[in-house]
C-alpha cells in the first residue's frame, strides 16, 4: 500500500519534470533556425507547414503546442524529431544502450565502493584505508570528462604496449564483424569495459567515502560488541551485524548519487561514441529538437524515480523499523 | 588481535573441580596515546578469583577501570588496546588467544550482559534470530528448528510473555526492560560458567531494575554460573553479591566479603563512598559526606596512592609509593616506608579471598575502629531561618492546579489526522511554599518532565492553572513574563550538554545578567560572587566548560540559575548524571544554598534516596497523575499507595544485612502506554494489591478512578481505594 502510493507520487513527479523540460526546450530552442542555412532556401510558408507538422512552430502559441504535446504523451507518443522521424522509434533504439551502461556502471561502482569503504573502516588508518581514501578523493576531485578521456589514454597506452587491441574505445561494437554469438559478445564487452569503468569509478569514489563513514559509526556500537560476546569472531560480527546496519543510510544516498551519474552518462556516451540517450540529448540540443529533449528528460526522470523506488524497497527490506509505519 | 604478553598459566589448575572458574591475575590494560598524548593506563593490576556459583561485585566510579578489565578478559577491547597479565578460565589461559579461539569461548563458557539494552541488540534482526545465532554459533549441528525451540524456551525463562510469537519481533518493539531480558536470555543460551554483568540495571527504572535483578538470580540458579557484577550502585551490590572488589583509578583498593567491606571498610575511599550515598533507610537528616576533588586522570597519575590527594587522612608517606593490596595489618609501617621509599607498588599478588586493603593506614583504621564519620570532616550546613516558621504560614511561591498536558498522536504524511491522545500529564495539583523542596518522583514516562516544562513555559495550560509567585501563567504580557523568569530558574540534568561548549564560564554565568540589563561593573562583581557561592575558583572564569569535571559543570549550571537571585529553582534530575562521591557535594551545595538564600525547589528525580535526603515534601507520579503526596517522613515511613510501596521496596539499600532481610515487592510488566491508560485506577494492571483483592472489591478499581484522600493527619494523601499504610524500607 505504501509502495503503491509512492508509485502514484512518482508518476506525477515524472510528468511534471518532463513538462518543465518541454516548456524550457520549447521556449529556448529555435527549430526554425535549422532551415535558415538550407539551400535552396525554403519559403516561409513551407517552413511553417513543416514546423506545424512537427508541432514545433513558434508562431503557434506555446499553450497550444503544449496541449497538443500532452495529448500525444497521453497516448504514449513523444512526437516527431526535427528530421520528421518518430522520437519513440529513436528512443527504443537508444534506451537499451544507455540502460546497459547505467546498470553495469551502478552495480559495479556501488558494490565495489561499499565493500572497499566498509573494509577501509575496519582497517581504519591502516595502509588499505589510506590508499582507498586517497584514491577516492582523487577521483572525486577530477571531473567525469577528464576521467573518461584519461581512461582512453591509458587504454591506448596498454594496447600499444601489448600490441593487442584489448580495449576498444569507439562505438558499441565493431560494425560488420562476423564472429558468431560469442565473438560478437566478446567484441561488445571489449567496447563496454572503458565506458562502464568511467562511470563506475565516480560511483565507487562516492560510495566508498560514504560507506566508510557509516561503517565507522556502527563499528563501535554496543550491538557489535554483543555479537562478539555471543561468540562471533570480530570479522563475522563486522560483516553480519555492522555492515548490514551500516547499509541502511547508504541506500538513501544511492538516489542522490544516481542523479549525478546520469549527468556523467552524457559525457561518457559522447566520448566513447555510444549512441545512447546521453549523447542524444546533446545532439538534440544542437539541432533544436524540442520533442527529443523532452523525451530524454522523461527517460532521465524515470531512471531517477526508478532508482528512488528501488532504494525505498531496499530500505524497507534492510530496516525493519520503517516497515511498521 | 589484541597485543598481549602472557604469564604462564598454572598447569595444575586444569581439570580440578575445586579450581576457581575464573582467575584474573595482575591484569593491565593500556590505551596508547595518539599524537604524542600520554598513554592511558586504564587498568593497573587487577586480580580476582571467582569460584563456581559465586557472585563477585566490582564497584567503582566512572573511569575506575571496572568495565575495561572485564572487556579485556573477554577479548572485546579494540585492537589497539595493550593487555597484559593472566586470565584463566577453568584453569586455561585465555588471554592472548587469537580471535577465533576466543570466539569459541565467548558466549559458551563466559558470556556478558551489557549496560544499555537499547543499543546492545542489532536493530535489523529479530530477537529470536539473535538468540538462535548465539545457540548455533557454538553448536552448528543443532538444526534451525531445534535452535528456535531453544530460543523460545529461553525467552519464556526470562519472562517474556507470549514468547513464541515475540521471538519474531524486532528489538525496537520491546521496552528497555524487556530488551535487557532478551540480553540475559542470550547470555544464558549456552549454559555458561561465568556471566559478566556490566551495569545491567543502570539504564533502567527502579521497578524494572528489581525485576532484572530477580531474573539474574534466576539465571544463576538455572545455569549455576558464577557472576561478576560490575556497578557503581552500592545498593545493587549489597544484596546481590558474596564478595566485593572496590576499584579506584584502575586498581583494586579494597576487597573482601560484602559484609566486611560494607560494615568494616578499611580504605578511606570505600568509607567515603559509603558515606556519600543518600540513604533511603535513614531518617535523620545528616549532611552527606562528599569526597573532595576529582578522580585523577589515568594518563598522568601522581606518584604514590592515587587517592591521597582526596584523602582526609593522607600522610606524607602516602605519596612515597602506591600501596599494595594487603591483608589488614600487613602493610609496611611508616618507618619502613621512610627507610625505603618506592619499595612497594606491586599490585598485591593473586586473590586470596581475605579482606585486603590498599592503604598504609588500614591497620591503624582497624585498631582505632574508625568509621567514615571519624575520618571525613562533616560539612556544616546552616539551618535556614524560615524552616522554623510552620509551613502553613509561609507564602505559596508556586501553585499548580489540575494541570493537564495532552499531546495529540498524529498519523499520515501529508494529511495528518489525529488517531489518539497521549495523556502525558492528566490533572495534577500541588503547591510549593517558600524555603521548601518538593520532590517529584516516578518512573520514566510518568510525566514528571512534562510537568516541569509546562511550568517553565509560562503558557496557558490546556486545562487547570499554574500560578508562579501570585501570577497566573498565560495571562501575562511579554514584559511580565520576562520579569517572572527572573524569579523562576532551572538547572538541567546533563551538565555536559546544558552548557555552551564554546562559551567561557564567565560568559555563561553572565548571560542572564546581561539579558536583564545589568551594568558591566555589577556583572563582574556578581559572577565572581556566584562562582564563589557554588564552590568554584573565581580565577577559573576564563576557562571553557570542557576543562571542568561533571560535578563542577553542574555547579556552573547552578551558578547560572542563581545569577538573577530567583525565588523558585526548578531542578530536573540535577545529580543523576554524576558519580556518587561528586553527587554528595552537589546535594550538599543545594541544601546550603536553600538555607542561605531561602530558595524554594521543585526537584524532579527518579532516585528516591536523593529525594528523601533533600526534599521536605514528595509527590509520586504514575501515568500523568499524582498517586501519593505528603511530607517526606510520612510518605517514606508509611507509604499508603501500592505504587509508592513498590517503588520504595524496589530500591536496594547499601547495607548487606538489611538488604538480604528485605522482601521486595516486584511489580509485573512495564509502564502502560500513556496514550491508552487503563480504565479506573491507572495502576491496577501492575498493582500487587489489586491481585489480592476479591472480585467484588476489584470492580471498584476497574471502574472508578481513585481521588487523593488523606491517609493520616497532616497533608499526606494517596489515590487508592484501598490505601493502607505499610512500612517497606
Would you mind describing this structure in some detail?
The complex is a heterodimer of chains A (325) and B (729). By secondary structure, chain A is an all-alpha fold. Chain A has a domain at 94-286: Orthogonal Bundle (MetI-like fold), CATH 1.10.3720.10. Chain A is built from 12 helices and no strands. Chain A has helices spanning 2-28, 44-54, 62-74, 87-122, 127-141, 144-162, 180-219, 222-230, 234-271, 277-286, 290-318, 320-323. In chain A, helix 4 (87-122) runs antiparallel to helix 9 (234-271) and helix 8 crosses helix 9. The relative contact order of chain A is 0.14. Chain B has 25 helices and 25 strands. Classes of the chains: A mainly alpha (325), B alpha/beta (729). The A-B interface holds A 221-223, 225-236, 241, 244-245, 248, 318-321, 324 and B 71, 74, 76, 99-100, 103-108, 111-112, 114-116, 119-126, 130, 133-134, 137-138, 170, 172-173, 183, 186-187, 189-190.
Q: Determine the number of helices of chain A (DSSP H or I, runs of at least 4 residues).
A: 12
Q: Please tally the helical runs of chain B, counting DSSP H or I stretches of 4 or more residues.
A: 25
Query: What CATH architecture of the domain at 22-241 in chain B would you give?
Result: 3-Layer(aba) Sandwich
Question: What's the rounded overall pLDDT mean of chain A?
Answer: 87
- CATH homologous superfamily label of the domain at 94-286 in chain A: MetI-like
Give the averaged pLDDT of chain B, no decimals.
Answer: 86
Shape by Cα distribution of chain A = globular
The CATH class of the domain at 94-286 in chain A: Mainly Alpha
From the 3D structure, determine the CATH topology of the domain at 22-241 in chain B: Rossmann fold
N-to-C terminal Cα separation of chain B, in Å? 49 Å
Strand content of chain B: 15-25%
CATH topology of the domain at 94-286 in chain A: MetI-like fold
Amino acid at each position: 500500500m505504501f509502495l503503491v502510493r509512492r508509485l502514484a507520487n512518482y508518476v506525477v513527479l515524472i510528468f511534471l519534470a518532463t513538462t518543465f523540460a518541454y516548456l524550457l526546450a520549447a521556449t529556448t530552442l529555435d527549430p526554425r533556425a535549422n532551415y535558415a542555412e538550407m539551400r535552396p532556401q525554403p519559403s516561409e510558408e513551407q517552413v511553417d507547414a513543416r514546423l506545424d507538422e512537427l508541432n514545433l512552430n513558434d508562431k503557434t502559441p506555446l499553450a497550444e503546442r503544449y496541449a497538443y504535446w500532452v495529448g500525444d504523451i497521453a497516448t504514449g507518443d513523444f512526437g516527431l524529431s526535427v528530421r520528421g522521424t518518430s522520437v519513440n522509434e529513436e528512443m527504443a533504439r537508444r534506451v537499451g544502450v544507455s540502460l546497459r551502461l547505467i546498470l553495469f556502471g551502478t552495480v559495479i561502482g556501488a558494490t565495489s565502493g561499499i565493500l572497499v569503504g566498509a573494509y577501509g573502516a575496519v582497517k581504519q588508518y591502516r595502509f588499505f584505508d589510506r590508499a582507498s581514501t586517497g584514491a577516492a578523493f582523487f577521483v572525486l576531485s577530477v571531473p567525469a570528462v577528464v576521467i573518461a578521456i584519461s581512461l582512453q589514454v591509458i587504454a591506448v597506452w596498454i594496447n600499444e604496449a601489448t600490441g593487442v587491441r584489448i580495449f576498444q574505445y569507439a562505438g558499441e561494437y565493431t560494425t560488420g564483424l562476423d564472429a558468431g554469438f560469442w565473438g560478437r559478445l566478446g567484441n561488445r564487452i571489449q567496447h563496454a569495459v572503458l565506458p562502464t569503468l568511467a562511470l563506475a569509478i565516480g560511483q565507487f569514489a562516492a560510495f566508498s567515502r560514504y560507506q566508510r563513514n557509516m561503517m565507522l559509526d556502527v563499528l563501535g556500537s554496543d550491538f557489535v560488541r554483543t555479537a562478539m560476546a555471543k561468540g562471533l569472531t570480530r570479522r563475522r560480527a563486522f560483516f553480519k551485524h555492522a555492515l548490514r546496519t551500516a547499509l541502511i543510510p547508504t541506500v538513501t544516498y544511492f538516489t542522490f548519487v544516481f542523479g549525478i551519474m546520469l549527468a556523467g552518462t552524457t559525457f561518457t556516451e559522447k566520448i566513447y561514441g555510444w549512441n545512447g540517450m546521453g549523447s542524444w540529448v546533446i545532439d538534440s540540443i544542437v539541432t533544436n529538437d524540442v520533442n527529443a529533449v523532452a523525451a530524454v528528460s522523461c527517460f532521465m526522470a524515470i531512471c531517477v524515480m526508478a532508482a528512488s523506488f528501488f532504494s525505498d524497497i531496499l530500505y524497507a527490506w534492510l530496516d525493519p523499523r520503517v516497515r511498521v509505519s | 588481535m589484541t597485543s598481549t604478553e602472557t604469564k604462564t598459566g598454572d598447569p595444575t589448575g586444569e581439570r580440578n573441580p575445586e579450581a576457581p572458574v575464573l582467575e584474573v591475575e595482575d591484569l593491565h590494560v593500556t590505551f596508547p596515546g595518539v599524537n604524542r598524548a600520554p598513554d592511558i593506563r586504564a587498568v593497573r593490576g587487577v586480580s580476582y578469583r571467582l569460584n563456581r556459583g559465586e557472585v563477585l561485585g566490582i564497584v567503582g566510579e566512572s573511569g575506575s577501570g571496572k568495565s575495561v578489565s572485564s572487556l579485556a578478559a573477554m577479548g572485546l577491547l579494540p585492537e589497539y588496546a595493550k593487555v597484559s597479565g593472566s586470565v584463566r578460565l577453568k584453569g586455561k589461559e585465555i588471554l592472548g588467544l587469537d580471535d577465533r579461539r576466543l570466539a569459541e569461548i565467548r558466549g559458551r563458557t563466559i558470556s556478558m550482559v551489557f549496560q544499555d539494552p537499547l543499543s546492545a541488540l542489532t536493530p535489523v534482526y529479530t530477537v529470536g534470530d539473535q538468540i538462535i545465532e548465539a545457540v548455533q554459533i557454538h553448536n552448528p549441528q543443532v538444526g534451525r528448528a531445534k535452535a528456535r525451540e531453544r530460543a523460545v524456551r529461553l525467552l519464556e525463562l526470562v519472562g517474556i510473555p507470549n514468547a513464541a510469537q515475540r521471538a519474531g519481533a524486532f528489538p525496537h518493539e520491546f521496552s528497555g526492560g524487556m530488551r535487557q531480558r532478551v540480553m540475559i536470555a542470550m547470555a544464558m543460551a549456552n549454559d555458561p560458567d561465568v556471566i559478566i554483568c556490566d551495569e545491567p540495571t543502570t539504564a533502567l527504572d527502579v521497578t524494572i531494575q528489581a525485576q532484572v535483578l530477580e531474573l539474574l538470580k534466576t539465571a544463576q540458579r538455572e545455569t549455576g554460573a558464577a557472576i561478576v557484577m560490575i556497578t557503581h550502585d552500592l545498593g545493587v551490590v549489597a544484596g546481590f553479591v558474596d564478595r566485593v572488589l572496590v576499584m579506584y583509578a584502575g586498581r583494586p583498593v579494597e576487597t573482601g566479603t560484602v559484609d566486611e567491606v560494607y560494615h568494616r571498610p578499611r580504605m578511606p575511599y570505600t568509607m567515603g563512598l559509603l558515606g556519600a550515598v543518600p540513604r533511603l533507610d535513614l531518617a535523620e537528616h545528616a549532611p552527606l559526606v562528599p569526597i573532595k576533588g576529582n578522580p585523577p586522570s589515568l594518563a598522568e597519575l601522581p606518584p604514590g596512592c592515587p587517592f591521597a590527594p582526596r584523602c582526609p587522612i593522607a600522610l606524607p608517606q602516602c605519596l612515597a609509593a602506591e600501596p599494595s593490596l594487603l591483608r589488614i595489618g600487613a602493610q609496611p609501617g611508616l618507618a619502613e616506608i621512610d627507610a625505603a621509599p618506592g619499595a612497594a607498588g606491586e599490585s598485591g599478588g593473586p586473590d586470596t579471598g581475605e579482606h585486603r586493603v590498599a592503604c598504609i593506614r588500614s591497620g591503624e583504621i582497624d585498631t582505632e575502629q574508625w568509621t567514615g564519620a571519624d575520618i571525613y570532616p562533616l560539612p556544616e550546613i546552616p539551618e535556614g531561618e524560615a524552616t522554623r516558621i510552620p509551613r502553613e504560614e509561609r507564602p505559596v511561591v508556586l501553585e499548580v492546579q489540575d494541570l493537564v498536558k495532552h499531546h495529540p498522536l498524529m498519523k499520515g504524511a501529508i494529511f495528518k489526522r489525529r488517531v489518539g491522545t497521549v495523556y502525558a500529564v492528566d490533572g495534577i495539583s500541588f503547591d510549593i511554599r517558600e524555603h521548601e523542596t518538593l520532590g517529584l518522583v516516578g518512573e520514566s514516562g510518568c510525566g514528571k518532565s512534562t510537568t516541569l516544562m509546562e511550568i517553565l513555559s509560562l503558557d496557558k495550560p490546556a486545562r487547570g492553572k499554574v500560578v508562579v509567585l501570585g501570577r497566573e501563567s498565560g495571562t501575562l504580557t511579554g514584559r511580565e513574563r520576562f520579569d517572572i523568569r527572573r524569579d523562576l530558574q532551572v538547572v538541567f540534568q546533563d551538565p555536559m550538554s546544558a552548557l555552551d561548549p564554546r562559551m567561557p564560564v564567565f560568559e555563561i554565568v553572565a548571560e542572564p545578567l546581561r539579558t536583564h540589563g545589568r551594568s558591566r561593573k555589577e556583572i563582574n562583581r556578581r559572577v565572581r560572587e556566584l562562582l564563589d557561592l557554588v564552590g568554584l575558583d573565581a580565577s577559573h572564569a576564563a576557562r571553557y566548560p570542557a576543562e571542568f569535571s561533571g560535578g563542577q559543570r553542574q555547579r556552573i549550571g547552578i551558578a547560572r540559575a542563581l545569577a538573577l537571585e530567583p525565588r523558585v529553582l526548578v531542578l530536573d534530575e540535577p545529580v543523576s548524571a554524576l558519580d556518587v562521591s561528586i553527587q554528595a557535594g552537589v546535594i550538599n551545595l543545594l541544601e546550603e544554598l536553600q538555607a542561605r538564600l531561602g530558595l524554594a525547589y521543585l526537584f524532579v528525580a527518579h532516585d528516591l534516596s536523593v529525594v528523601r535526603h533533600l526534599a521536605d515534601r514528595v509527590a509520586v507520579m504514575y501515568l500523568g497523575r499524582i498517586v501519593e503526596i505528603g511530607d517526606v517522613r510520612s510518605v517514606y515511613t508509611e507509604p499508603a499507595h501500592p505504587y509508592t510501596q513498590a517503588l520504595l521496596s524496589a530500591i536496594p539499600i547499601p547495607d548487606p544485612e538489611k538488604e538480604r532481610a528485605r522482601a521486595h515487592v516486584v511489580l509485573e510488566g512495564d509502564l502502560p502506554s500513556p496514550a491508552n491508560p487503563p480504565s479506573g485506577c491507572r495502576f491496577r494492571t501492575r498493582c500487587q494489591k489489586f491481585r489480592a483483592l476479591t472480585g467484588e472489591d476489584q470492580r471498584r478499581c476497574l471502574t472508578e478512578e481513585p481521588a487523593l484522600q488523606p491517609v493520616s493527619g497532616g497533608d499526606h494523601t494517596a489515590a487508592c481505594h484501598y490505601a493502607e499504610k505499610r512500612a517497606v524500607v
